[in-house]
Amino acid sequence: MSARAGADRTELDYVLGQRRIVSVMGTVFTVDVRDLDPASAALDDVVTWWRWVDATFSTYRPSSQVSRLAAETLELADCAPEVRHVLRLCREAAAISGGHFTERYDGRLDPSGMVKGWSVELASQMLRRAGSQHHSISAGGDVRCVGVPSAGELWSVGVVDPRDPGRLLAVVAAPQAPSPGLAVATSGTAERGHHIIDPVTGRPPQDLASISVVGSDLTLVDWAATAAFAMGHDARAWIEAMDGLDAYAVTPEGDYWYTDGFEARAELVQVPLPPLATWSVPATRRTTAGFS
Amino acid sequence: MNRPALATAGTVLGVLLLLGGKAATSPTPFALQGSSSLSATAAGTSTGPVINTRYGPVQVEVVVAGGRITDVKALQLPTGGQSGQIADYSQPLLRREAIAAQSAGIHAVSGATYTSQGYASSLQSALDQLAASSKTQASSVAPTSAEAKA
After folding, report:
1. What is the predicted pLDDT for the residue at A198?
2. What tens digit of pLDDT does each residue of A212-257 get?
3. What's the CA gap between A117 and A143, in Å, rounded?
């Protein structure tokens, strides 16, 4: 057992009902597919894709292309085209976020903030090409839903309370099909402690305990959540200005805010403590309408 | 402040947990595939080793009946967080996923990622242990309550 216990690359891959559950990229990915066999070749391909992404982009594996690129033992031109593509996405994200997202903090190359969401977005495209119109992929808390779970039902994604992970704060519903579907990503300190540094200030962001960003493209939604968490309260105006995105944020004190469009996409299932007037929130946005 | 809303949240979680528990006795909960192979008769409870992660020790217990995983419990998860505000770490994602899988209303949950590598490692070891013992001496593994009910 002890030899195994020390192994860092134990890989789980199993089927639970309609779900394929795999451990990859240091977390657990789940594909809930309603119109394909979760043990089918299409799902095998998705798992293989994620394993390849992990092996290629991991900053923990010295042999990965990204590690060798960072160590300057590999030229960018010799990397897989996917590596160049992701680094291009990173630079775009850095520009759009005013530097609150970066793949190169303190000189160290780390595109991890882009890789997970992007690899899941592509996995969803792979499934669609394989004929699936109805699936939901959950990747360590980031979620991408397409289609519907069943006739007359909508995919719904619970937003976890960062201060009490057994509780949900809101339930976001996917739009009616046909639509681009739903993407939700949460960034925060809740489960890994302060693992995010705001590249602009060089310090861990203090404003928020977590922020959940909602949209339809998980590549964008995932990096936007990372950038938004670094921005803190400033993320509100930034998200408002981003086409198709909304957000729900919670502070370490349990205060919260959400963007104007969030309420239309979600149901608040739990009302946190009344917000403190520490930042500008229109009074109407603090109400708990819908539960009155 | 609207109390019914709070009650709703409590009920949702309660229902999720009930459904999660119910899964343990349903006929076809988990089917294993991949690196661990359990015989169709494998049954019992197995505890994985403590895995030390960057975030603290992780240890899981897995319950198997009829060759299928019926429950996964975290015995140890990293505790911590800023100034005691976060009493403990989340329900591990696998468990959360399992719960979500059984609930009528919620299909997935979004929260900051936790490290599951230790969790996965401990789970894998627990399964390996069970697979090994089911091949050699299945009777030595204590039957689970799920199996007893079956």
Report:
1. 85
2. 999 999 999 999 999 999 999 999 999 999 999 999 999 988 889 9
3. 9
State the CB neighbour count (10 A cutoff) for residue A105.
16
Model confidence pLDDT, tens digit, residues A46-61: 999 999 999 999 988 8
Q: How far apart are CA B139 and CA B133, in angstroms?
A: 9
What value, to the nearest 5°, has the Cα angle with vertex B113 and ends B68 and B26? 20
Interface mutation target, options B113, B127, B130, chain A, most CBs of A under 10 Å: B113
Picking from B103, B105, B54, the residue whose alpha carbon sits closest to that of residue A173 is B105
- Angle at which helix B3-23 crosses helix B93-102, to 10 degrees, equals 100
B82: nearest CA partner in chain A: A193
- Whether residue B112 and residue A141 make contact (CB cut-off 8 A), yes or no, is yes
Q: Which of B6, B51, B81 sits opposite A5 (nearest CB)?
A: B51
- CA–CA separation, B105 vs A173, rounded Å? 10
End-to-end CA distance of chain B: 46
Q: Kind of pairing, strands A256-258 and A246-250? A: antiparallel
Pairing of strands B108-110, A156-161: parallel
**Chain A contact for B29 (CB, 8 A cutoff):** yes
**Spatial separation of the C-alpha atoms in residues A184 and B111, rounded to whole Å:** 9
CA A275/CA B72 separation, integer angstroms = 37
Band (pLDDT 50/70/90 cuts) for residue B44 is confident
- For A190, the closest of B1, B36, B86 (CB atoms) is B86
Does an H or E element contain A194, and which?
none
Residue B147 CA to residue B142 CA, distance in Å, equals 10
Query: Which of A13, A164, A167 is opposite residue B34, by nearest beta carbon?
Result: A13
B94, B112, B124 ranked by CB distance to A192: nearest: B112
The single-letter DSSP state of residue A198 is B
Nearest CA-CA distance, residue A91 and chain B, Å: 23
- In chain A, the N- to C-terminal Cα span, in Å, equals 55
Q: Which residue has the higher pLDDT, A254 or B81?
A: A254
Q: How far is B9 from chain A (nearest CA, A)?
A: 6
Q: Compute the distance between CA of residue B64 and CA of residue A156 in angstroms, rounded to an integer.
A: 30
> Which residues of chain A fall below pLDDT 50?
1-10, 190-194, 271-292
